[in-house]
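If you are new to this repository, start here. Below is one unmodified record pulled from the training split, so you can see the exact layout before writing a loader.
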Amino acid sequence: MKKCVKNIIFSILLFGIAIISKDVFAASASISGTNTVYVGDPAVVTVNIYGAAWNVTVSGAANEVIAGYNQDAVNQSVTKTYSINTSAVGTYTVSISGDVTDETSDVATPVGGSATITVIARPVITPDPTPPANNNTNNGGATTNGNNNSSNANTNANNNNTNASTETKTEETKTAEPAKTVKPIEVTKFEIVGYDFNFDADTKTYTLTIDKNISKLYLIVEGKEISVEGNGIVDIADKDKVTLKIKNSDQEAEYTINLNKQSLGNSVTVSAKSKGNIFMATTVIFGWSTVILAFFLAKDMIKFRKQNKESL
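And here is the target side for that same chain:
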């Protein structure tokens, strides 16, 4: 009886150990890395995956998709290590997301996590100030004040030199930031249709003399990687100026065209296309006028000849 009880207890213990083992070694994914380093020091992030199948995405300061499976459908370990660029001060984070599948289940388990590395500036090491020398000089039991003053002066000079040296080393550790190059605004075409207009990118204000009866202007502004506000047909009926804003990815420039409206005898400036249309219309009208005139001349000539025959 006692032997049977022992066997039952032993079986229960084995079953419990098996369950605990399954829980401990279930499919999982984790990420770890160096916490804080100085500029230029090595820093690594490690991703550990355990499972029969896995699909984990690494993002942030390191990027990779880790996907795969065990051909025997049993759990295995996969380890990936990433070196982080520590050339500049800052905080760098690497994250994981995705899922892993345990050999005992067909259901994927979501996983996630992150590791953050903080890169700090390397401290500036300065020498300790020179300790003051013993200023008391006994000569036959007497203290020499002249030697004391000289020692104090030398100590102060040494301290000043040490401070100056420290300030110089501190200045040397500062890295000058390179000046940012601002991309210039490049305008390849600036035209006001019907008017002679000379554009200069450095000139921001212009004056255009137009007839006071003109109500619209047609502006054509083109360039390299620019956007234009106020381009195209502009209504100027109640305006005394036209403003254009031209900008690229680095800067914006505003150009103003002041309108000098005068009575120019109702003169109208037309484009080349309009001139062509007017010429065609004039040609057609002139042609028809010639035909009509020839018709009436021929009619009068026939009438004149008929009258002459009757008189004879």
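Two things worth knowing about this chain: The chain has three helices and 17 strands. The helical segments are 2-24, 145-173, 272-311.
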